[in-house]
Amino acid sequence: MPFIPPADLPPPALVQTVSTATPDEATPRSDPSDRAATSSHQGRPDPAAFSAPEALTRPVQFSDIASVIRATDVPSLAASATQAQFLQAEPISAPLGLEEASAPPSQRNFASIRAPWVSQLGDRDAAPDAENVPNPPPPDQAPQTDTNSDEDEVVEGDDPESSTTLDEEEDGPVYPRAATPERDWSNGAVVDGALLTPTQPTNRPPTPLNLTADYQEFEPQTQVLTAQGDVVLRLGNGILRADRLWANLANRFVVVDGDVLFTRGEQVIEADRGEYNLIQGAGSLFDARGTLFIPSAGSDLAGDLTPGTTDPDILAADPINNVEGTGNLSFGTGLTVPSSASGLPQPTAGGAVRRFRFEAAQLDFDAEGWYAQEISLTNDPFSPPELEFRGNSATLTRLTDLQDELYIENARLVFDQSFTVPLLRDRILLTRGEQSANPLFVTFGYDGTDRDGLFVERSFEVYRAGSWRAFITPQVLVQRLLAGEDPPPEDESFLSNLGLEADVVGLLGPRTSVRFNASFSGLDLQNLEDRLRSSVRVRQLLGRHVLNLEYSYRDRLFNGSLGFQNVQSNLGAVLVSPSFRIGDTGITFSYQVAAQYITADTDRLELVNSTTPPFRASLGRFQGSVAIGRSFDLWRGEALPATPEEGLRFTSTPRVPNIRLALFGRGTYTYYTSDDTQDDLSASVRLSGEFGHFSRDFFDSTVFNVTYTRSFVSDAATSPFFFDRNVDSNRLSGGIIQQLYGPFRLGFQTSVNLDTGEIINTDYVFEYNRRTYGLFLRYSPTRSAGFLGFRINEFDWAGRAPRFGGADIREVEGGVLQ
């Protein structure tokens, strides 16, 4: 548009710019003809270097000719802050270096104001009307009228009474067509502007916007906002940073480009370029990467722009630091529970990994989920990652408020950027607040007592309603299928080679959970009495205490030298206390009480009604037990730094060399309705420790423990049952795990009855440990049970990362169920 002196016409579309340049260097830009002069000044970015898509730069169509504003209507600018009424007539302050409007735009200077700006805006109703101008612009210079628009169109705001037609505003100021026209967009600095959430109208409060940049422009007629140079946009509870930003306020479309960084809640996403539609809550990120925290990803990345709190420190490009192992997710199946006093690592299935890094060639997202191309996920905070989960594409679809479905095309695990293992499972259900799903197609287990050795299983969810879920887990008893059953049943059937686990879990209330389990070690139902084990357990929280209500059928317990014992039926309740600390003494104590009605094997024939095996007695059992303990640090070394070359080379947590001494005592009294009693007073002393940091290649990790336990039991006061009879009153246990080379460790844990010399139990342990994952095998020939599993470690960290470059056996110790 050619320049026309303001005596006859207003200047072209009013544009205010913010720059870090000096007044002598800075000139405003009001039409494309000025770009050459503007970009010739050093110290400011060239606006022509960043342009929005042509289809998105259409000017806003007005239903009539807008009222005009004199150049003298531009508000004065203060050096520290802008007191701006965008269309309010005020005189221009000469000391700020604004020349008369008679000069052509390319020759005008403008005020130098350092970003960020602070704008204090008034409401529309409080703003005085603009000064009337006697000479309107000719039709060829005025904004074009949209002949297809409805002349009675209403611009909606938060207050229905403020809604007016554009015709009614013909003689008043023209405001940007934002979602809430009561607010102003002042001088290119969008500070107190407001956006409605994608669903309009809404009763929610407006979402605050705050934009700072080295250089900003706003054209009110086209409703286009441009910002360049260290752009930081605070939108609701999110923070967006980029080199350049372009926004069309009419259709609510935003484009960012150059070192894009978006953080909201716990999520941190980087990209080379991004597009976002504020109305639809949808967008795309190109060459995306970042960090996702799964538990809050659904709410953090939702289209809702609810105000909240996000830590702005994440904008700093700090390297990865404060790396800390916070847990792990273990896949596997096993039927052994190591002794709680073993002191060695105890693999168990379960857990969760909640924080991931990701990369994707393109990431498209909306309120229903997201779609990624060429995606890679890793739990490793360092690059190149040791373990990657890759797919040609991935789609996350929200099914309910608590459940998402993740579909991965050509899913595979990549170890050390070279070795690839395909995953046969392409769909995973993710439920917030629950343990992560097992991505492996099948899992393996070993049970020599009920299933004759090795078996393979796969779990399926078959029912879900509210907090209730049901699972079935078919099993193939591989070793029984190949070698036969020992001893063979009288009615042999092929179905005996198949097993099944059925589980139902749910909540009866916020502090009450229920779990039902039925385990079939063979599907030949003619032998159902020997195949089925089942239980129903209700867990009720009572303050810090836990009340367990239980009914079980053929429960299997391991009682030291007496081995496995079956409890035919058990109905009762057990109250378990938390661990209490006595002042500053370091002494802890806990207790539990139980009341049960039990049918189990016995050698007391006077309690048995039958004269033929099996000999079982049914008695009431009442028990109270108190445990006390104290541990001492005899020596403690220093951990290596949490870096991939030192402390985190073969472990998720830097190892701390140490030697510890622990003293324990326990007293137990049990009464049976046969007028029998069993009392036990035991004392234990344990020496445990760890040498090395598990960082060097050879013999840099040695974990050991030695425990001696002495029980004082009255010979005249013993249990009438086998399953809780205390027969190991003088025992010694110990174990060691030794690094052999690199990530490989080998060890054992054993326990011996010193009175008889009988080995109570021995576990053999083999481990392959890396920072992000591990393979482990644990096998007990005494129990004929084992655990084979795969572990994925979870980390928490600070800073921004670079690119990628079964347990159903419970124990009895001292007559107390553990």
UniProtKB/TrEMBL annotation:
<dbReference type="GO" id="GO:0009279">
    <property type="term" value="C:cell outer membrane"/>
</dbReference>
<protein>
    <submittedName>
        <fullName>DUF3769 domain-containing protein</fullName>
    </submittedName>
</protein>
<dbReference type="Pfam" id="PF12600">
    <property type="entry name" value="DUF3769"/>
</dbReference>
<feature type="compositionally biased region" description="Acidic residues">
    <location>
        <begin position="148"/>
        <end position="172"/>
    </location>
</feature>
<feature type="region of interest" description="Disordered">
    <location>
        <begin position="1"/>
        <end position="57"/>
    </location>
</feature>
<feature type="compositionally biased region" description="Pro residues">
    <location>
        <begin position="1"/>
        <end position="13"/>
    </location>
</feature>
<dbReference type="InterPro" id="IPR022244">
    <property type="entry name" value="DUF3769"/>
</dbReference>
<feature type="region of interest" description="Disordered">
    <location>
        <begin position="124"/>
        <end position="188"/>
    </location>
</feature>
<dbReference type="GO" id="GO:1990351">
    <property type="term" value="C:transporter complex"/>
</dbReference>
<dbReference type="InterPro" id="IPR050218">
    <property type="entry name" value="LptD"/>
</dbReference>
